[in-house]
């Protein structure tokens, strides 16, 4: 997932309800899909951040020594400045980048 290319807002914004539920004609179904995608994005970001921070990990038993690593601080600041997972998911939904299917319709 390329987080630099996503054009999601950094702060809270109001969305047009009709645009959100246009694909499903059901606001609750649309929100459910967005919430599931948001959880996926959150786990991807968390996994990516942990992998990057493990590169800087030092395994000392000494609690007295604290090392400040500038690269580690920059990585952390980058992830702090990213839009929240729910904002990313809503933007993907509005851009039509989320694939979904209703399994109840397929059973008929």
UniProtKB/TrEMBL annotation:
Gene Ontology CC annotations of this record: DNA-directed RNA polymerase complex
Q: Which GO terms describe its biological process?
A: DNA-templated transcription
Any GO MF annotation of the entry: DNA binding
- One Pfam family assigned to this protein is RNA_pol_Rpb6
Taxonomic placement? Bacteria, Pseudomonadati, Bacteroidota, Flavobacteriia, Flavobacteriales
What InterPro entries does this protein map onto? Pol_omega/Rpo6/RPB6
Q: What protein is this chain from?
A: DNA-directed RNA polymerase subunit omega
Name the keywords, alphabetized.
DNA-directed RNA polymerase, Transcription
Species this chain originates from: Aurantibacter aestuarii
